[in-house]
Amino acid sequence: MLYANFVKLPDEDTPLSPRIADDPKYTPYFDDCVGALDGTHILAHIPTEEQARYRNRKGTVSQNVLAVCSFDMRFLYLLPHQQLFS
After folding, report:
1. Residues of the chain under the 50 pLDDT cut
2. C-alpha neighbours within 13 Å on the C-beta side of residue 81
3. What does the DSSP 8-state code read for residue 68?
4. pTM
């Protein structure tokens, strides 16, 4: 449900970020770059019987998420990852 409200994909009319276009250190190497990606763990409230699947290596209960953001800090892609082991 959140995807439509928070994830906005660039289209062919989306201009190249000034952060790339105006810096010779980045252009032409990142001319086709739409953003940056990184992963993070977001704390989660999970029913007790399912917490083992969401416990991370530090012992807290969290959801592992991969996110791609544009250079103006808008989400382009989100991938939540559910642990398959218990």
Report:
1. 86
2. 12
3. E
4. 0.62
